[in-house]
User: Fold Putative oxidoreductase from Lachnellula subtilissima.
Amino acid sequence: MHFTIILVPFLATTILPVWCQKQQEPILSPQETAIKQPLIGFGTYLLPQSEGPENTTAAVSLAIETGYRQIDCAADYENEQAVGKGIAKGLLKANLSRGDIWVTSKIWNDRHGDYDVVEGALNKTLSDLGLEYLDLYLIHWPVESSSGKNEVDYIKTWIAMSHLPKSRVLNIGISNFSPEQLRHLISETGVTPAVHQMELHPYLQQSSWIAANRALGISVTAYSPLGNSNPDYQHPSSPSRFSSSLLRSFFWSKNTESAPLPPPPLLQNTILKEIAERRDCTVAQVALSWNAGRGVSVIPKSSHERWIKENYGSLECELGVLDLVQLEEVGVKYLARFSNPSEEWGVELFAGLDDA
Assistant:
């Protein structure tokens, strides 16, 4: 099967949808335009640092050799030099050129600001990656912290990004925006993101929010597509980038009236295991295929050869109607967001979304 997502770069619009209205049927097919983003990519967040940067390099190289043609990076991951080495190594081994892959990176909160600040952040990322251009550059969070204080402020940064030379950034986009923040971004600047990257998995399905983005010609990418398979997300007592008290607030079940409890790790969910057995796939492949079937690009990550190849094999895992019904029921039973630094940063994020 051949999967791609089609993007509209720098699209300006003045017509906006009803932002928080629930739509009965999500739009499942991306709109037909000009630029293609691979439907499956390789994420680089939290690739094991304890094993040294060569591990990150080897994982990225293996991903490209395996068939991944999208690499997702970020300045905040603090590994872009190792990722860049992996890209160079992988392209060489796979006999590919730079134009054969899609590379995304993200500007971090402390680099928001005017054009000079944003350009400096881009130049640092390109230098670390050893690349001449990015296919996609995202605002990582709608939070500006260059002054030392976290504030929801992103307009100046977005305007600056829209003026970056096309020879160095082909598309710009956003990550982790709420409906109101997206509306404000477009109404203030007239520039619509090409891509919106957000947390999406069977425990956080957000079908209406995907549809609202698609109505504007915005393609959607899912981070954490395997949900709480990440050890940071599995239990409130686990070491986390955010505080344990905040992590507890990530978990919420519609069917739990008492104190919220975390859902089971996604890869241990009995319904997904049942579907995987029925379809002769792994649970991870079921979760990835489900999102890809919605036209959502997925960026799973792993440093292990077996799982890198297994995740890529999700392209061959085909789900049926019964599978989709059961997966929808999983999303009704559990509603869990695993990455939400609102309390930690003292700002409001994700207002107006399903789990708000």
